Amino acid sequence: QVQLVESGGGLVQGGGSLRLSCAASARTFSAYAMGWFRQAPGKEREFVAAISSTSGNTAYADSVKGRFSISRDNAKNTVYLQMNSLKAEDTAIYYCAAVPGMSGGVYRNKNTYTNWGQGTQVTVSS
User: Fold this and answer.
1) Which whole number is the average pLDDT over 74-91?
2) How far is CA 98 from CA 2, 15, 52, 75, 83, in A?
């Protein structure tokens, strides 16, 4: 099992930037593929971005492509989501997720992931 703790959320004006962090407790963090998802009020949790365990492969939702960037530092057991050019429609709770033993793969389906953080609120004012 791995514990995930997100941080870095907050209130930002439209057009601004935020960087989310997700710290993982796993000793073998590098063996986990990671993802970011978000959930707005009244909506289902949706895929935002994903990164493979060690190969650096990434995937993005069309709605954030070119604005958001996912990265990871396996030495720090941390995955990041850099969010630029934020829009009001990016407002949501952002969740970090992990799934073990999936080297090289990136996963868009939330049901693939086995571990979740508690979420961090991102609010973008228009």
Assistant:
1) 97
2) 8, 29, 10, 16, 20
